[in-house]
Design goal:
Shape: globular
Order of helices and strands: EHEHEHEHEEEHEHEHEH
Strand content: 15-25%
Structural class: alpha/beta
Distance between the termini: 35 Å
Bound molecules: NADP nicotinamide-adenine-dinucleotide phosphate
Number of strands: 10
Strand order of the largest sheet: 3-2-1-4-5-8-9-10
Radius of gyration: 16 Å
Number of helices: 8
Oligomer: single chain
Largest sheet: 8 strands, mixed
Amino acid sequence: MTTAIIGTGGLGSAVARRLASGGETLRLSSADNKSARTLAAQIGPAAVVAVDNRDALQSADGVVLALRFTVLKGVIQQITDSLAGKVVVVPSNPLSIDAHGNVSRVLPEGQSSGEVVGGWLPAGARLAMAFGTMSADLLESASNRSPEPAVQFYATDDDQAGKEVERLIRTAGFEPVKVGGIEQSGRLEVGGDLHDLVVGLAEARSLIGGA
Ligand SMILES: NC(=O)c1ccc[n+]([C@@H]2O[C@H](COP(=O)([O-])OP(=O)(O)OC[C@H]3O[C@@H](n4cnc5c(N)ncnc54)[C@H](OP(=O)(O)O)[C@@H]3O)[C@@H](O)[C@H]2O)c1
């Protein structure tokens, strides 16, 4: 299967490496494609660099938008024609980072990026929020954990997106656990009770039920 990854910074690179190591074929793009080219060279033949964001989606089964929240809306508008029927996986936390590295929340408390991004997508796009609960370093170090795989939580309202994101999570070396619909996605994001956790299946299920 082929997944487009738009955004090949810290998180996009980690997701790409994990997916490629699980056998996924990747189409990569970034703002100027320099980081996408560097990443593709590291990964090898499983990754190709697309001409641009729209081209990344050509022949891709789904897309991971590994972008900062503040650029997501513009990129979605750019590729909107290609998103109908596609599974769109978003790891973005509702944060902005200024030139000095200061991080601030860009949405009111209680409003999740999942809910906002859902409103930016065209009809027919199949949103799943996933891969944003762990830091990029943790995503790499916690993958393929043995004997018990670590869990990646996800949220979606769409059954097909759920199946596809579960496949991607397993390909990346984790056990998928659904927290609920997009209205629950704040639990995965910065400040949410499931953010930054590395847990196995039994603990994950008890955390979900215990909310
Ligand atoms: N980093 C983490 O540990 C982590 C953990 C959990 C969740 N997240 C979430 O993941 C998202 C990405 O974070 P990050 O740390 O990976 O950010 P990042 O390192 O700044 O990477 C952002 C990527 O977006 C690309 N980009 C910017 N504008 C673009 C455009 N118009 N078209 C295509 N690509 C564009 C950049 O391209 P260039 O490379 O060409 O500049 C870069 O590759 C954020 O929303 C964050 O909340 C991050």
